[in-house]
Write a structure and sequence with these properties.
Blueprint lengths: L22 E2 L12 H14 L1 H4 E3 L4 H18 L4 E2 L3 E3 L5 E3 L5 H6 L5 E6 L7 E6 L8 H4 L4 H4 L8 H13 L6 E4 L2 E3 L24 E11 L6 E11 L12
Amino acid sequence: MTEIVQTETPYDPDVSRGLPGMAPLAVEDWLLSDEAFAAQMAERARLLHERRNDVLAVMPGAEAACDELLETVLGWLADHGRGYVVGDSAVRRPDGVKVTIDRTDPLGTLGNLVQEDLCLMERHGGDEHVLTAAVLCFPASWRLADKIGRPLSEIHVPVPEYDAGLARRVQRLFDGAQVGRPMWRFNRLNYAEADLFQPVSRRQPSVSGDGQPYPFLRTERQCVLRLPRTRACVFSIHSYVLRRQGAPGVGGQTD
Protein backbone atom coordinates (compact mmCIF):
# COMPACT_ATOMS: atom_id res chain seq x y z
CA MET A 1 0.00 0.00 0.00
CA THR A 2 1.36 3.40 -0.97
CA GLU A 3 1.54 5.70 2.03
CA ILE A 4 -0.37 8.94 1.52
CA VAL A 5 0.25 11.58 4.17
CA GLN A 6 -0.03 15.34 4.41
CA THR A 7 2.34 17.72 6.15
CA GLU A 8 -0.21 20.28 7.35
CA THR A 9 -3.89 20.96 7.96
CA PRO A 10 -5.86 24.21 7.51
CA TYR A 11 -6.70 24.18 11.24
CA ASP A 12 -4.91 23.20 14.44
CA PRO A 13 -6.13 19.68 15.33
CA ASP A 14 -4.75 20.07 18.86
CA VAL A 15 -7.23 22.84 19.73
CA SER A 16 -9.93 21.34 21.94
CA ARG A 17 -13.60 22.03 21.25
CA GLY A 18 -16.61 20.89 23.19
CA LEU A 19 -18.82 18.40 21.35
CA PRO A 20 -20.33 18.68 18.81
CA GLY A 21 -17.95 21.59 18.15
CA MET A 22 -19.63 23.02 15.05
CA ALA A 23 -18.75 26.48 13.72
CA PRO A 24 -20.04 28.58 10.78
CA LEU A 25 -18.32 28.17 7.41
CA ALA A 26 -18.34 30.35 4.30
CA VAL A 27 -19.89 28.53 1.32
CA GLU A 28 -16.80 29.17 -0.80
CA ASP A 29 -14.69 27.27 1.76
CA TRP A 30 -16.82 24.10 1.70
CA LEU A 31 -14.60 21.75 -0.36
CA LEU A 32 -10.80 21.67 -0.28
CA SER A 33 -7.94 20.44 -2.45
CA ASP A 34 -4.66 19.87 -0.64
CA GLU A 35 -1.12 18.61 -1.22
CA ALA A 36 -2.27 14.98 -1.32
CA PHE A 37 -4.94 15.61 -3.97
CA ALA A 38 -3.52 13.46 -6.79
CA ALA A 39 -2.56 10.56 -4.53
CA GLN A 40 -5.87 10.53 -2.65
CA MET A 41 -7.86 10.76 -5.88
CA ALA A 42 -5.94 7.82 -7.34
CA GLU A 43 -6.75 5.81 -4.21
CA ARG A 44 -10.41 6.80 -4.46
CA ALA A 45 -10.50 5.64 -8.09
CA ARG A 46 -8.94 2.31 -7.09
CA LEU A 47 -11.42 1.73 -4.30
CA LEU A 48 -14.41 2.67 -6.45
CA HIS A 49 -13.19 0.23 -9.12
CA GLU A 50 -12.17 -2.67 -6.87
CA ARG A 51 -14.48 -2.28 -3.84
CA ARG A 52 -17.44 -0.26 -5.03
CA ASN A 53 -19.94 -2.14 -2.86
CA ASP A 54 -17.85 -1.31 0.22
CA VAL A 55 -17.50 2.41 -0.47
CA LEU A 56 -20.75 3.45 -2.19
CA ALA A 57 -24.36 2.86 -1.18
CA VAL A 58 -27.72 4.39 -2.12
CA MET A 59 -30.99 3.57 -0.37
CA PRO A 60 -34.18 3.38 -2.44
CA GLY A 61 -35.73 6.84 -2.52
CA ALA A 62 -32.43 8.70 -2.16
CA GLU A 63 -31.93 9.16 -5.89
CA ALA A 64 -33.27 12.73 -5.98
CA ALA A 65 -30.88 13.84 -3.23
CA CYS A 66 -27.96 12.16 -5.03
CA ASP A 67 -28.85 14.00 -8.24
CA GLU A 68 -29.11 17.31 -6.41
CA LEU A 69 -25.79 16.70 -4.65
CA LEU A 70 -24.02 16.14 -7.97
CA GLU A 71 -25.46 19.33 -9.44
CA THR A 72 -24.60 21.25 -6.26
CA VAL A 73 -20.97 20.10 -6.33
CA LEU A 74 -20.63 20.81 -10.04
CA GLY A 75 -21.97 24.31 -9.49
CA TRP A 76 -19.66 24.83 -6.52
CA LEU A 77 -16.63 23.66 -8.51
CA ALA A 78 -17.51 25.98 -11.38
CA ASP A 79 -17.74 28.95 -9.00
CA HIS A 80 -15.10 28.16 -6.38
CA GLY A 81 -13.07 25.09 -7.35
CA ARG A 82 -9.45 26.12 -7.75
CA GLY A 83 -7.89 24.38 -10.74
CA TYR A 84 -11.15 22.76 -11.87
CA VAL A 85 -12.58 23.27 -15.36
CA VAL A 86 -16.27 22.29 -15.45
CA GLY A 87 -17.90 21.51 -18.78
CA ASP A 88 -21.29 20.15 -19.77
CA SER A 89 -20.17 16.53 -19.97
CA ALA A 90 -16.81 16.37 -18.17
CA VAL A 91 -14.67 18.04 -15.52
CA ARG A 92 -10.91 18.50 -15.60
CA ARG A 93 -9.50 18.22 -12.10
CA PRO A 94 -6.56 20.22 -10.71
CA ASP A 95 -4.26 17.24 -11.39
CA GLY A 96 -5.24 17.25 -15.06
CA VAL A 97 -7.43 14.14 -14.94
CA LYS A 98 -10.63 14.39 -16.97
CA VAL A 99 -13.74 12.94 -15.27
CA THR A 100 -16.85 12.20 -17.32
CA ILE A 101 -20.06 13.43 -15.69
CA ASP A 102 -22.28 10.34 -15.44
CA ARG A 103 -25.68 11.53 -14.24
CA THR A 104 -26.84 7.92 -13.97
CA ASP A 105 -24.14 7.42 -11.33
CA PRO A 106 -23.98 10.69 -9.36
CA LEU A 107 -22.10 9.37 -6.32
CA GLY A 108 -19.64 7.41 -8.45
CA THR A 109 -18.94 10.60 -10.40
CA LEU A 110 -18.51 12.61 -7.19
CA GLY A 111 -16.15 10.03 -5.77
CA ASN A 112 -13.81 10.72 -8.67
CA LEU A 113 -14.20 14.50 -8.55
CA VAL A 114 -13.38 15.67 -5.02
CA GLN A 115 -11.25 14.56 -2.07
CA GLU A 116 -14.21 14.65 0.31
CA ASP A 117 -16.30 11.65 1.18
CA LEU A 118 -19.96 12.66 0.90
CA CYS A 119 -22.82 11.32 3.02
CA LEU A 120 -26.49 12.23 2.58
CA MET A 121 -28.67 12.51 5.67
CA GLU A 122 -32.44 12.77 5.16
CA ARG A 123 -35.39 13.09 7.50
CA HIS A 124 -38.68 11.79 6.14
CA GLY A 125 -41.12 12.09 9.00
CA GLY A 126 -39.07 10.28 11.63
CA ASP A 127 -37.42 11.65 14.73
CA GLU A 128 -33.91 11.61 13.27
CA HIS A 129 -31.97 12.12 10.09
CA VAL A 130 -31.07 8.83 8.40
CA LEU A 131 -28.01 8.00 6.30
CA THR A 132 -29.63 7.33 2.91
CA ALA A 133 -26.63 7.46 0.55
CA ALA A 134 -22.86 7.88 0.65
CA VAL A 135 -19.62 7.60 -1.21
CA LEU A 136 -17.22 6.76 1.62
CA CYS A 137 -13.78 5.75 0.37
CA PHE A 138 -11.88 6.71 3.52
CA PRO A 139 -13.83 5.41 6.53
CA ALA A 140 -12.20 5.99 9.92
CA SER A 141 -13.03 2.76 11.78
CA TRP A 142 -16.57 2.22 10.52
CA ARG A 143 -18.20 0.29 7.69
CA LEU A 144 -20.70 1.90 5.36
CA ALA A 145 -22.66 -1.36 5.15
CA ASP A 146 -23.21 -1.22 8.94
CA LYS A 147 -24.49 2.36 8.94
CA ILE A 148 -26.47 2.86 5.71
CA GLY A 149 -30.18 3.25 6.44
CA ARG A 150 -29.57 3.97 10.13
CA PRO A 151 -30.43 7.16 12.08
CA LEU A 152 -27.87 9.50 13.61
CA SER A 153 -28.00 7.97 17.09
CA GLU A 154 -27.23 4.49 15.75
CA ILE A 155 -24.54 5.68 13.36
CA HIS A 156 -22.49 6.98 16.28
CA VAL A 157 -22.69 3.76 18.32
CA PRO A 158 -20.37 2.80 20.04
CA VAL A 159 -18.83 6.28 20.45
CA PRO A 160 -18.67 6.68 24.28
CA GLU A 161 -19.20 10.46 24.23
CA TYR A 162 -22.37 10.15 22.13
CA ASP A 163 -24.91 10.02 24.94
CA ALA A 164 -28.60 10.94 24.78
CA GLY A 165 -27.90 14.62 25.47
CA LEU A 166 -25.33 14.92 22.70
CA ALA A 167 -27.59 12.98 20.34
CA ARG A 168 -30.34 15.56 20.88
CA ARG A 169 -27.93 18.44 20.26
CA VAL A 170 -26.64 16.87 17.05
CA GLN A 171 -30.18 16.22 15.81
CA ARG A 172 -31.12 19.85 16.52
CA LEU A 173 -28.02 20.90 14.60
CA PHE A 174 -29.10 18.93 11.53
CA ASP A 175 -32.68 20.17 11.86
CA GLY A 176 -31.43 23.76 12.04
CA ALA A 177 -29.00 23.57 9.12
CA GLN A 178 -29.88 26.33 6.64
CA VAL A 179 -29.32 26.58 2.91
CA GLY A 180 -26.24 28.68 2.14
CA ARG A 181 -24.96 28.53 5.73
CA PRO A 182 -22.78 25.43 6.12
CA MET A 183 -21.09 24.44 9.38
CA TRP A 184 -17.89 22.56 10.13
CA ARG A 185 -15.98 20.72 12.85
CA PHE A 186 -12.96 18.42 13.10
CA ASN A 187 -11.94 15.31 14.99
CA ARG A 188 -8.63 13.57 15.69
CA LEU A 189 -7.77 9.87 15.80
CA ASN A 190 -4.64 7.80 16.40
CA TYR A 191 -3.52 5.09 14.00
CA ALA A 192 -0.66 2.66 13.65
CA GLU A 193 -1.01 2.75 9.84
CA ALA A 194 -1.48 5.55 7.34
CA ASP A 195 -4.08 3.61 5.31
CA LEU A 196 -7.05 5.79 4.38
CA PHE A 197 -9.45 2.87 3.98
CA GLN A 198 -9.89 1.84 7.65
CA PRO A 199 -13.29 0.13 7.91
CA VAL A 200 -12.52 -2.00 10.97
CA SER A 201 -13.89 -0.62 14.23
CA ARG A 202 -11.30 -0.16 16.98
CA ARG A 203 -10.59 1.89 20.06
CA GLN A 204 -8.40 4.92 19.53
CA PRO A 205 -6.08 5.33 22.55
CA SER A 206 -3.27 7.85 22.34
CA VAL A 207 -0.58 5.18 22.79
CA SER A 208 -0.02 1.67 21.48
CA GLY A 209 0.20 -1.44 23.63
CA ASP A 210 3.89 -0.92 24.31
CA GLY A 211 3.28 2.61 25.58
CA GLN A 212 4.63 4.31 22.46
CA PRO A 213 2.58 6.99 20.67
CA TYR A 214 0.93 5.83 17.49
CA PRO A 215 2.93 7.15 14.52
CA PHE A 216 -0.01 8.68 12.61
CA LEU A 217 -2.54 11.35 13.48
CA ARG A 218 -5.71 11.23 11.42
CA THR A 219 -8.04 14.21 11.49
CA GLU A 220 -11.24 14.80 9.55
CA ARG A 221 -12.66 18.16 8.52
CA GLN A 222 -16.40 17.51 8.62
CA CYS A 223 -18.99 19.87 7.14
CA VAL A 224 -22.80 19.95 7.12
CA LEU A 225 -24.53 21.60 4.16
CA ARG A 226 -28.28 21.78 3.46
CA LEU A 227 -29.49 21.09 -0.11
CA PRO A 228 -32.28 23.51 -1.12
CA ARG A 229 -34.58 21.29 -3.17
CA THR A 230 -34.65 17.91 -1.40
CA ARG A 231 -33.70 19.44 1.98
CA ALA A 232 -31.18 16.63 2.49
CA CYS A 233 -28.12 17.41 4.61
CA VAL A 234 -24.72 16.70 3.12
CA PHE A 235 -22.11 15.50 5.60
CA SER A 236 -18.73 15.91 3.90
CA ILE A 237 -15.47 14.49 5.25
CA HIS A 238 -12.00 15.65 4.18
CA SER A 239 -9.37 13.27 5.56
CA TYR A 240 -5.87 14.24 6.65
CA VAL A 241 -3.18 11.81 7.78
CA LEU A 242 -0.02 13.26 9.31
CA ARG A 243 3.07 11.49 10.57
CA ARG A 244 3.69 12.43 14.16
CA GLN A 245 6.87 14.36 14.79
CA GLY A 246 9.73 11.96 15.39
CA ALA A 247 7.91 8.91 14.04
CA PRO A 248 10.15 6.81 11.74
CA GLY A 249 9.42 6.65 8.03
CA VAL A 250 8.25 3.39 6.58
CA GLY A 251 8.84 4.04 2.91
CA GLY A 252 6.27 4.66 0.22
CA GLN A 253 5.03 7.99 -1.08
CA THR A 254 4.47 11.22 0.76
CA ASP A 255 2.23 13.75 -1.00
